[in-house]
Design goal:
Layout: H1 3-18, H2 30-43, H3 50-56, H4 61-73, E1 77-81, E2 89-93, H5 95-113
Antiparallel strand pairs: 1-2
Helix pairs in contact: 1-5, 2-4
Length: about 120
């Protein structure tokens, strides 16, 4: 492997480590993808329902439900009934998500500004 590819691999490893603030349950990317999907939908002003989340992620319903239950229990995601129909529950990111994403952005920016040699 030449030096450039080795540096690229090292950078990818460091970026993966920079994701630690939003990987609260180990190396699985399912919780990260759930947090990103919920946060992005809310930024668009269209908070997702459970059904929309299940349809929008490339994982099994069981895997999403399991990880979402942990995220809800640990305060990363909040359920909220918006509007008149109290049966329709939306998923909202907690302030923990914005804080964690900001830390990831800071660490990733630092890595990209000063890549390994």
């Amino acid at each position: 492997m030449d030096g450039q590819n080795s540096g690229d691999a090292h950078l990818v490893q460091q970026l993966r480590e920079a994701l630690a603030p939003v990987l609260p349950y180990g190396p699985s990317l399912i919780p990260l993808d759930i947090l990103a999907a919920v946060a992005l939908a809310n930024e668009r002003g269209d908070p997702p329902t459970m059904k929309q989340l299940l349809a929008g992620l490339p994982y099994s319903a069981t895997g999403i439900r399991y990880n979402l239950a942990q995220l809800l229990a640990d305060g990363w995601v909040v359920k909220s009934a918006l509007g008149d129909d109290r049966r329709l529950v939306f998923l909202l990111p907690s302030p923990k998500v914005a804080e964690a994403f900001a830390r990831v952005r800071s660490q990733a920016s630092s890595l990209l500004d000063n890549p390994p040699h």
